[in-house]
Amino acid sequence: MKGVACVAGACIAAALLAQTGDEAKVAHLKYKWDNVTIVGGGFVSGILFHPLQRDLAYARTDIGGAYRWDPKTKKWVQLLDWIQRPDWNLYGVESIGLDPTDPKRLYLALGTYTNEWAGNGSILRSSDQGRTFKRTDMPFKMGGNHDGRSIGERLAVDPNENSILYFGSRDTGLWKSTDFAATWSKQNGFPVTGHTNGIGICFELFDTGTGKKGQPTPTIYVGVSSAKTNLYRSTDSGKTWTPVPGQPTGLTPHHAAFDRSGTMILTYSNGPGPNGVSAGGVWRFDPKHDAWTDITPDAGKGFGYAGLSLDAQHPGTMVVTSLDRWSLGDDVFRTTDGGAHWTGMKDTAKLDSSGSPFLNWGQKEPKFGWWMGTVQIDPFNEGHILYGTGATIWGCDDATNVDRREPTHWTARAQGLEETAVIDLISPPEGVHLFSGLGDIGGFRHDDLKTVPPDGMMVNPLLDNIDGLDFAEKSPNIVVRIGRGGASTRRGGYSVDGGKSWNPFGSEPAGARGSGHIAVSADGKTILWCPAGTTPNFSHDNGSTWTPSSGAPRDLRVIADRVNSMTFYGYDSRVGAAYRSSDGGATFVSLASGLPKGDERMRAEPGLEGRLWLAAGKGLYRSSDGGKSFAKLTNVIDASTIGFGKAAPGRTEPTLFLIGKVGATEGAFRSDDSGLAWLCITDAQHGYGTMDQIVGDPRIYGRVYIGTNGRGVLFGDPAR
To answer: In Å, how far are 570, 580, 581, 610 from 553, measured between CA atoms?
Structure first.
């Protein structure tokens, strides 16, 4: 048994570490968690309103979980924060199933990837609108972040007999449950059992009028992602299936819905999306006569159709979304006469992005959207429409204005929904407390953790992905960042005023093929950059010119000593070797070798020259001699990443924060005594799936920032 750590005068039981680490138990310290406010940031692949309860809506995302709308706070509430690291793959939502007869029942199909290294999917069932769940693990994989992720819904409840559900898989055909999703069986009578077009089954749709309450609905339709036969029908409650005659070919279905008259509307594209679509259509199907009518909006060619919603109060009124209309921009098309005439809403729309300023992408006005795979008309308010994009949810309350050729007014409606994928975080000792580097939407200077960054993404250069951030420890107003994509040809830039303004590097090291890794010396006078495909280069003029270092391999992961301005370090993850430069990056020498290979992360401890920490997957290593040797901490079983925060009262060394496994416990941890004892700071309600980044605040003892892959940036403080 290890010792006892004292925190702010109160003794807290430290980690209990037995000799057999896998059986060890770790004490928990209660933390209060919240999101750093960005609002949105990722692909919202599905939105659903419940037909019986006003203001009950759900949203699903490709990597960031599922949400329920809270009309009191006017925010989305995450339903899956309890998912722990071993089950990270369940944060991608393949489908949402609503029970149209019971607003309390909710079903979620979870699984992010179908790759060999990903686990199988699961289906969750809830009788309290997602406040609690029961789980059934399925014998196949799901692909919430694969192509076709906005089609659906794959998970459907029989409205005549709500104990019956169907789920359409990507690779193993059609599945059925008769006990409210507790158990499932494969429907061997369904003719499609493979993955067809990489997507498999798209949706199930019940023709409610063919049955009666308390009995299984006789007529069921199933859409399949195939350019040949893509719509099947059963008239005997799923026992036998036949292709629907006369169906369109050459396209694959995306969404389908029945109107009050029993007519089916379908949207089609020539690919599953969200990319790669260049043709599509909208069709009406009359089941009584097996008659098909093309009602595609007359809006040009070269794109597809995806989202679909029918007005519950006004037959003949519906909206559809275009998909991959890159030249003109995607649109929401509205009709009030069953598709005889359509009106695009984009050109007269007034967009207000103040609730999420990054949506401007450095421009004066935001875009109407892209990757628009879902749209919904509120069943209780025809003027209220929501649609999802690759970055947010837009909504309006005056959709009927378009019928009179008047502008509609749209605002960002993703409050509470934080779906960013975090690549890097830094917390300087002066100025703002946090900078974030994110995937797809660049990154931010966070002046206020609970307020959206008012200036949007960091610009000049404007980058889609920020892959690396660093600040000068002794001159923290000097900040550097590198990344890729976006409107700039430059992959890096610097700030001398704490991120208030930026300047792109004047040049790049010769042979650079990607952003790579970057560091800035403790005094801010030297920038060391190792772009992908090159060896390190150093600059003394803020990136105007670069000089190659000698003695270092290509693709070295470089960091700066936080005390000595002349010292840099590097880690070669391909061979497991550490390097050091003592002359400002001019030359490197190899030091410790035989260390773990792979996605290791080395960090330099603030306040003590030469103290290095290496989070190396299956362990945590520490060097006290500037990388000459490393010692493994025996109490850490797994280490994903390590960070530093303000020292505990009465101590001089910084607080350590870890994402990994200590003893038998997975999660995020804190140590006040350089890793001798650890406290788990996440719990059963706060697992957050994939946590990739962690850094403490050097000015607030106990404060920690965590970066996730799809759940945004989180900050936590000890609960009082």
So the answer is: 9, 12, 13, 21
